[in-house]
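Hi R.,

As promised on Friday, here is the backbone we talked about, encoded as structure tokens. Could you run it through your design pipeline when you get a chance and send me back a sequence?
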């Protein structure tokens, strides 16, 4: 599905990512792990076309994405749930979800997708006509994930979904992410600082330090890796 090979990227002349490579298959959840400033967001920005890579390749279903616009990448089916959610807080939950239907196909399937979102997050049905800004942080994160689903993603990118949320809400959102991958075949990239939760959800993980992938492997192997345990799990 997605294959990132020797990605080099940064800001202006400052290079942040060095030869980053990873892949995501259909129905697979991968975690991109790393501490503050490691380069996780820069990796996501490269995939979504927000920054132009210096070199390397990002192929999605065999098609090169490097150099394509964010809109073209979105149209290809790569949808990000941004860090900080970025909802329209004055608009209702329903109106925010409507905005997720940016393509003709998504508009056609809106009712069906909405039904799926309400099944995953029943709270959103209760709150459908309430302005998004009045929801709790966890509920807002659910709206952000649901809005992405309305867009019919093939690849869903969750950027720091745990940020500022209670652990049980994070678990609820990660269970949905896992379910989407396993039942609907969506590829999921989970960018997380909460390494324990990320490794519980993901099939594979990639640890980024100073812009480089320093470790990768199955979540099980990473969770018993001595470096991961010491540096990220505090054990
Ligand atoms: P966090 O978990 O804190 O979001 P991160 O792993 O996502 O961290 P990035 O946001 O990718 O890290 O940042 C990697 C490096 O790139 C940092 O040193 C950061 O200061 C730098 N950086 C990020 N955005 C910009 C920008 N717009 N212009 C210049 N440098 C930037």
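Update: got your reply. Pasting your designed sequence below so it's all in one thread:
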């Amino acid at each position: 599905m997605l294959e990132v090979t020797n990605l080099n990227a940064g800001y202006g002349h400052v290079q942040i990512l060095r030869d980053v490579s990873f892949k995501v298959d259909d129905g697979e959840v991968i975690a991109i792990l790393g501490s503050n400033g490691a380069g996780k967001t820069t990796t996501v920005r490269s995939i979504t076309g927000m920054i132009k890579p210096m070199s390397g390749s990002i192929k999605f279903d065999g098609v090169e994405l490097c150099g394509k616009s964010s809109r073209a990448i979105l149209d290809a089916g790569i949808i990000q749930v941004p860090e900080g959610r970025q909802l329209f807080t004055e608009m209702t939950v329903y109106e925010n979800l409507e905005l997720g239907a940016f393509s003709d196909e998504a508009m056609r399937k809106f009712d069906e997708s909405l039904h799926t979102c309400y099944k995953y997050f029943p709270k959103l049905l209760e709150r459908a006509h309430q302005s998004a800004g009045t929801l709790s942080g966890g509920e807002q994160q659910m709206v952000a994930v649901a809005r992405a689903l309305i867009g019919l993603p093939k690849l869903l990118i969750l950027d720091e979904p745990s940020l500022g949320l209670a652990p049980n809400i994070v678990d609820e959102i990660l269970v949905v992410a896992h379910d989407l991958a396993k039942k609907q075949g969506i590829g999921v990239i989970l960018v997380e600082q909460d390494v324990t939760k990320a490794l519980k959800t993901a099939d594979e993980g990639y640890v980024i330090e100073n812009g480089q992938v320093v470790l990768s492997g199955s979540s099980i192997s990473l969770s018993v890796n001595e470096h991961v345990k010491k540096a990220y799990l505090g054990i």
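One thing I noticed while checking it: The mean pLDDT is 95.

Thanks again,
M.
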